[in-house]
Amino acid sequence: MDEEGPAEQESWSPVHRERSQTSGSLSEGSGKKRKQQGVPGMGQRGPEPQTSDDKEPCTKRVRPVAKTLSGSGPPSAKVTPLKRLSQSIQRSISFKAEPRPPGYVPPPRAGGCRRRSSKLWSETFDRVSEELSAHEVIFELMQGEQQLVDDLNLVKKNYYEPMLTLAILPEAELREIFGTLDSLAPLHEDLLGRLMGLRQEDGTVPELGPTLLDWLPRLQAYEPYCCHQVWAKARLDSRKREPAVGEFLRLCQESAFSRKLELWSFLDLPRSRLVKYPLLLREVLRQTPPEHPDHGALQRAVALAQDLVGLINRKTGEAECRYYQQRLSYPDGGPRHPGIDRSSLLLCHGELRNSKGQRLHVFLFQEALVLTRPVLQGQHVVFQVQGPPLPVGQLEVQDLPDGGPRLGGALRERARSCLRVSAGAQAHTLQAADAFDKQQWLSHLRQALAARPPQELECSLGPLAALRLDCDPPMDHT
């Protein structure tokens, strides 16, 4: 893909690099059994797609700073996809089932693109053992593959092909928006077929590791898709303003096949699936005894999955960094800041208010903190740099207590959730959206300082679900 991509985007919301949580373990808790409603003609399926994020993931509020460097968050933080997966698997150990052959794995049933009947492995029996087995996780893996294949086919059938046939957008622009999505469905169909082929007559899966070691390198196909997502999102947001495109997408979202999800929700599903593989495989390994012949191969599969996801995350972060570097606009055509251009990673960015109450979009690159003002110039969105960038090497960060001096702006209120950044003669008081956002900003700023020099910064880049470019912050039209 052309890295320059489309410059157009409708708008954006705070976005920050979030760690791909590939090194954690599943939580210890258990949940209540969910009531399931069957769909005629459809078999038992895995967990529901991520309902809390899938409702309106493109318009939901995104925290100004995600777990970029620290990988931590408050107890009240919204459940992440991996934690949600953990909870769904833990639900499967809350019930008792009659004994089955060791390693029994019920087969996933092929389904259509409508909302699926969601049953966990454990819910297919009257009673389940109290121990979480590796085969339950394998079942979750198989169900997830089937659901993703269904959704990828849905996107092609209900979005790409109709938009091409009806000439809603030119084919070149459709390729820009959908990227290499069409190449991902065969990849997951292949894994699903291999998993089904491993099942013996009694439903057991004796060894999984060798199959995974052979298949996992195919995940490299995700690199061009994920690296292009920031440009694809910008192009989609720009074209949604056109009446024909906006009306088509609205009708699709109101139709039953979409499950009330926006198009971008479907385009982001592969990335969401990608970051789950290390955790799923690690859980299979945890439940596999060391003396089992599959243990060594599973260990190598976990390491390979982590390496591949880490590489794709790093490449994706570099692509996002380039995207925003190209969209910085310097006043009066001034020279670009060398520290920004040298940075290969965008550590975090999002909206903060200055002491006058004005909204700014702040970027923390490896070597510079940049305060900008978003401006729409025709069909192009750029970020006008407000004053000289603050070099990270000279940056000082201060946590300001609540109840300080009043802020300016239309609503003059006593300052809350404020912090102060300074470098040399420059100093800025900035206000975050709330106390959580402020602590996240402080955490990432301090860790960026502690990680100097730049080459020692941790490359913990993560999910593209945080690429939210469709909120509506105020911007100037010039």
SSE topology:
Blueprint: E1 15-16, H1 51-54, H2 81-91, H3 134-165, H4 171-178, H5 184-198, H6 209-215, H7 222-239, H8 243-254, H9 263-267, H10 269-274, H11 277-286, H12 295-326, E2 328-329, H13 338-342, E3 346-353, E4 359-365, E5 368-377, E6 380-385, E7 390-391, E8 396-400, E9 418-423, E10 426-431, H14 435-450, E11 476-477
Parallel strand pairs: 2-6, 5-11
Antiparallel strand pairs: 1-3, 3-4, 4-5, 5-6, 5-7, 8-9, 9-10
Helix pairs in contact: 3-5, 3-11, 4-7, 6-12, 7-12, 11-12
Which key terms come to mind for this protein?
Dbl Homology Domain, Chain A, PH-domain like, 478 residues, disordered N terminus, 3-stranded antiparallel sheet, 8-stranded mixed sheet, alpha+beta
Radius of gyration: 24 Å
Q: Could you say how many structural domains there are in total? A: 2
Secondary-structure element sequence? Answer: EHHHHHHHHHHHHEHEEEEEEEEHE
The name of the CATH architecture of the largest domain is: Up-down Bundle
CATH class of the largest domain: Mainly Alpha
| CATH homologous superfamily label of the largest domain | Dbl homology (DH) domain
Largest sheet: 8 strands, mixed
Shape: globular
- What's the count of strands? 11
Measured distance between first and last alpha carbons:
30 Å
Low-confidence stretches: 1-14, 18-86, 88-107, 109-131, 454-474
